Amino acid sequence: MTAAVRALTLAWVAVAFLCGVAAADAWGPGALAAAGAISIALVAAAIITRERIAWLLAVLLPTTFLLGAWRFEASHGPLPDDAVSRSNDAAAVRLIGVVRDDAVFGASSQRFAIDVEQRYERDRWVPASGGVLIVAPPLPARRAGDVIEVEGALESPPALDSFDYPAYLARRGIASTIAFPRISARGTRPLPAWRAPLVRLRRAIAHGIERALPEPEASLAEGVLLGERSALPADVRADLNATNLSHLVVVSGSNVALVASMLASGCAWAFGRRRALMIALLGIVTYALIVGGSAPVVRASIMASLLVGARMSGRRSTAIVPITLAAAAIVFVSPDALRDPSFQLSFAATAGIAWLGAPLRVLILNACARLFRRETLPSVAWPLAENLAVTISATLAVNPLIAMYFGRTSLIGLPANLLVVPLFPFMLAASGLAPAAATVPWGGTLLAAPAHYLLSYWLAVARSLADAPAAAPGVRLDAPAAAAAYVALVSVTIVVTRAAAPARMADRLHAVGSPLSLARVGLVVVPLVVAAGSAAFLLSGRGNGELVVTVLDVGQGDAILIRTPRGHDVLVDGGPGRAVLRGLGEAMPWHDRTIDYVVLTHPQADHLNGLVDVLDRFEVRHVLSGPGRGDVFEMDVWDDAVTRSGASRAVAHASQTLPLDDGIEIDVLAPDAVMAGDENLNNTGVVLRVSWRDVHILLTADIEAEAEAELLRSGADIRAGVLKVAHHGSRTSSTPAFLAAVRPAVAVISAGEGNRYGHPAPDVVERLATYADVYTTASHGSVRIATDGQRIWVNGGEVSQCTAC
What we know:
Blueprint: H1 3-27, H2 30-49, H3 52-74, E1 92-99, E2 104-105, E3 110-121, E4 124-127, E5 131-136, E6 146-153, H4 165-170, E7 176-179, E8 182-188, H5 196-212, H6 217-226, H7 234-242, H8 253-271, H9 273-291, H10 295-313, H11 317-333, H12 341-372, E9 376-378, H13 381-406, H14 413-420, H15 424-433, H16 444-466, H17 479-500, E10 510-512, H18 518-539, E11 547-551, E12 560-563, E13 569-572, H19 579-587, E14 594-600, H20 605-617, E15 619-625, H21 632-645, E16 648-651, E17 657-658, E18 665-670, H22 673-676, E19 687-692, E20 695-699, H23 705-714, E21 722-724, H24 736-742, E22 746-749, H25 762-769, E23 773-776, H26 777-780, E24 783-787, E25 792-794, E26 797-798
Parallel strand pairs: 5-7, 9-10, 13-14, 14-15, 15-16, 20-21, 21-22, 22-23
Antiparallel strand pairs: 1-3, 1-6, 2-3, 3-4, 3-5, 6-8, 11-12, 11-24, 12-13, 17-18, 18-19, 19-20, 24-25, 25-26
Helix pairs in contact: 1-2, 1-3, 1-11, 2-3, 5-6, 6-15, 7-16, 8-9, 8-10, 8-12, 8-13, 9-10, 10-11, 10-12, 11-12, 12-13, 12-17, 13-14, 13-17, 15-16, 16-18, 20-21
């Protein structure tokens, strides 16, 4: 028996095991009948062919098929008696558990899983088990090892139309969810000795990225480097999905295989095959350790390592066999992995690269040689052709699964991947460099610039192509149709392979190039261009000659950025969560990571929560907060955040002025001594009047009618051309007398779309409309007010009349 035959036999054995697991999952006891049918068919084939290998397969394949069926059944025992999922969809429960991993944050919430250890039952704590996914408010951030007590209603994970969410969670040991339970801290459990330094490293990398880059580039960099895409804004996720680029923001076999293959090909061109293999394998291991070593990461790393080793050997036939055997070994350890879309996508992408990558590379090189009528090509042609072939093969291999699981077939997925994937290793490297920017007092912008430029390019490609007509049509394939698509793909692969084999012109193309080849010049020129562009930002100054006040779209809350003509930044409130970070990323220059003043008008969640992240991510010089004291828990979080930031701190009161030394006056009009002690926190809010030359902008926090009346009694000058309407347009504010005194030409209401409070009130909007053009963040998104001191522009359009600017 030749080596090729032995390898092929092992591959068939691995496939039979995988089929046995799949049959047991789908048919249960019916898998035995399938094994019998396979055995009969193989024995008949052996009798007819009289080949020794046929008799061997007739014994091995049914046996390994049954082994796969047995392994699946053995891994699915009965639910433990103490499993908390037995109480799903019933009364509320009290649980004690340990947080598995650091929480993942959305716009105004956090998600994390706990491993339950105890349950309160009949006036005592009893042992319990199970995994629970928890959705909670964004503060405080939960971290791996936190021991917490949770009280809430356990629910079964909901079934989604386009995704088997319960099965997805079950594969991660989660069978229950709780939305916004009551949570209390119970201490911290030390992490295992091997895991603790990796968690600290991961946190340090994430924090460095967040300090160096704006949003959404920071979230994208964390996805690229750490494999976490949940924090991406919804519109960015939609663009990535529509262009089939989302696979680059998760830790999957396709992701790791792409990077490893491109790293190996680039290093082979520079250092030779043997050293390239060692560098690539070291890169895979390092990446897996940084990301965290979870089961999907380990699976992806195994697949990628085998792929790189096989491709470095130069023999395509050696690639499929170890990859198939690795898949069987992974499924043997965890049979549920076979149903995991991430595993299937990993295997498909890895197999696609292994099988189709080499012939595609040959075809590309042949085409280039014929196009330019050359017998030799520059040395840079080889890694470029390799990257192009890897991109095409991986994209083609995963498309049927994407159509089956997610109901879309992106028509622009291939061009989008061709534009982005060849640069992905550089994006990964640049994202790894960005955290160092936060540690460099001078020149940090230079270290963060490559990541910003590359990730901005990626976002621009996704945004522009996602807007193309019919970019991602809703085409859903069932399992038979997806299988047929793979049969067709394999058939085309065979044709392509045979077409590439006869001439193999590329084998005769000597990779020649002078010491000043394009690639070598690029290694010098590209960093110089990045450095020069970043230095230009630093030397050009911070301002643009206008006063710009942007009411950020943060949902149901307030966040207003004031940017002075000389580039000083004042942030008034931060909204209910992390949406403020996206707003700041759009309203501020990407390299500006300093905020001169942060003002907390009053300590309520829809104004306070987002500022905690701002204090963590930006260099904040001064903090000014209202005199009100809110919930003890929220105040503790706020006080800790201010202390950690190192900013100076003061309490606001009427008659204060924020000194900015560039002609802009920001005066504190309220609260005075009367309102500072009001039991209604809204009336303790800080009211600011921003003035430049003839233009005045009034920011009224959430003050209500009583505080408005007190402002009128105080005699303060509240005339303003622009009014940020108080309390999200609630009926409790914006009294006729107050509006008559202000007489604004522009009124901006910060309110979340479809909020449960009914803000803004229709009668308030009608009242405002008698004076001003009314804008709401729910309808217009972020509202940008710019002025040169005489005229006012709102979202680029000039205000025609301004009687009280």
